[in-house]
Amino acid sequence: MSFRIERDPLGELSVPADAYYGVQTARAVANFPISGLRAPSDLVVSTILIKKAAAEANRALGRLEPAIAAAVARAADEILAGQLRDQFVVDVYQAGAGTSHNMNANEVLANRAAEILGASRGAYDRVHPNDHVNMGQSTNDVFPAATRLALLVGAGPLIDAARQLSASFSRKAEELGAVLKTGRTHLQDAVPMTFGQEFGGYAACIRRGADDVEHGSEQLQEMNIGATAIGTGLNAGEEYRELVVQNLREYTGLTLKPADNLFRVTQSMGDVLAYSGAMRRLAVELGKIASDLRLLSMGPRAGIAEITLPAVQPGSSIMPGKVNPSVPEMVNQVCFQVMGCDMTVALACEAGQLELNVMMPVIAWNALHASTILRESMHALRTRSVDGIAANADRARELLDRSTATATALSPHIGYAATADIAKEAVRTGRSIRELVLERGLLDAGKLDEILSVDGMTRGDIAGREQRPGAA
Q1: Are 281 and 329 in the same domain?
Q2: Do 362 and 143 contact (CB within 8 A), yes or no?
Q3: Nearest CA to 386 among 338, 304, 334, 331?
């Protein structure tokens, strides 16, 4: 490998001759060989969009030579089209605030723009990373704005994935709406319900989680670009700030606006925390449902086995024919990770000091990682599991007929204490609720059959009649 020598305020350093990044990026690579993780694609895209928007704003204001602005914009378009992505080489765990990430973008754009203008990489006399590409900017406004923009880019697909999963549960609820089953609380038998009611509940849980994410994303629309170092806007100005945000709106089609208070959005990553918290809520809802699907499908002979999940892969290297709930198991793991990401985001948001939160790189990576894996896990759950769920109606009815929880419908008619005594006797002896009630002469057979109709119990009214015996 051949090298070129570049200089920065700390001195000289060798940089690979064919690299589009420069000396400050090379220092970051040497300083932070930590995880092998690189900036998420959406964060790179958002950073480059901001650089393009800034170059075009500075050109419009007469601050940046038109030829340089055009070259930077052309270089940005190439990166946005997928080129030079291998030049974004800084580890996720880097110096605070994302300075290394910002300079990585500045250097790649500067060197590619210089090349477009016929200059050499690494010289920076034609296009300079700081003077031209970073004009009117600071890491302290570029990185939080890029984080917000990246999350917003991913918010639409995430919300769509959640709504599609909710719709899948709704369709399954309609398909299985009349199939009776045992409800369960405390992992014990509870009153009867239908699969339609159970799956309809799942649909509503995911839908409400999606609503929360959508609401949280609205808080990300404020851009502090133009705040520069601490929020005063030094070296930027209001006209520049308005132009950059206007350009970003045009590029992305997103509803963006300049921050109402530049100091708040520069000091605090609280809006990102709120969005992360909404993703956590969605993950909690999703994880609970995935666990339920695993429980309801457990068996096939020695468990509940009320539903069958699609078989997607062999379940054991030693037990032939075993099939596991592989997709819900994956979803549970994703949900744990999303909750862990949210905890990291919360701790890092709290660790901001004075006019800046220097923990932004780890905040951005965790929030964006959570968004990606949550979206993809919901897609996999929908297409490879929920859409193919089948109810084992005979098994569900068998368990329902064996349950003593149907005795609950007797309480308005014979009282709680008498009902509890009958239920305990049924469990102890294995005799049916109906048999014991008739034996004790508490109700006649016709009325008892009306009360113990499990289909009627799912409708939420008092089974059999509206009043207890003796009521006026």
Answers
A1: yes
A2: no
A3: 331
Reply yes or no on whether the pLDDT at 460 is more than 80.
Answer: no
Q: Which residues pair with 184 in a beta bridge?
A: 189
Active site residues: 316
CB 306 within 8 A of CB 296: yes
Q: What is the pLDDT of residue 51?
A: 98
Residues 213 and 323 in one domain: yes
Give the global pTM: 0.94
Q: How many CB atoms lie within 10 A of CB 310?
A: 16
Q: Please state at what angle helix 139-175 crosses helix 99-116, rounded to 10 degrees.
A: 100
- The DSSP secondary-structure symbol of 95 reads S
Structural domains counted in the chain: 3
Non-local CB neighbours of 325 within 8 Å, separated by 6+ positions:
293, 294, 297, 309, 385
Domain boundary at 135, 161, 180, which? 135
Tokens of 414: 């014979």
For residue 17, give both structure tokens: 């001759």
Sign of CA dihedral 377, 380, 386, 390: negative
CA dihedral 399, 402, 406, 407 (to 10 degrees): -160
CATH for 432? 1.10.40.30
Residues 6+ apart with CB under 8 A from 125: 119
351 burial (CB, 10 Å; 0-12 / 13-18 / 19+) is: middle
Kindly state the DSSP code that residue 355 receives in the 8-state scheme: T
- Give the pLDDT score at 448: 87
Q: What is the C-alpha separation between 237 and 29, in angstroms, rounded?
A: 33
DSSP letters of 391-436? E-HHHHHHHHHH-SGGGGGGHHHH-HHHHHHHHHHHHHH---HHHH
H runs (alpha helix) in 117-226 = 139-175, 195-218
Looking at the fold, whether 211 and 272 belong to one and the same domain comes out as: yes
Give the HSE-up count for residue 233: Cα atoms under 13 Å, Cβ half-sphere: 14
Question: In the chain, what percentage of residues exceed pLDDT 70?
Answer: 98
Task: Report if residue 340 sits inside a domain.
Answer: yes
Longest CA–CA span in the chain (Å) reads: 101
The pLDDT assigned to 472 comes to 35
Instruction: Kindly report the CATH number assigned to the domain that includes residue 199.
Output: 1.20.200.10
3-state secondary structure of 343: helix
- Which of 100, 135, 170 lies at the terminal end of a domain, its last residue? 135
Q: Residue 200 falls within a domain, yes or no?
A: yes
The reply to whether 108 and 242 lie within a common domain is no
* 333: helix, strand or coil: helix
**Cα–Cα distance measured from residue 398 to residue 377, given in angstroms and rounded to the nearest whole number:** 33
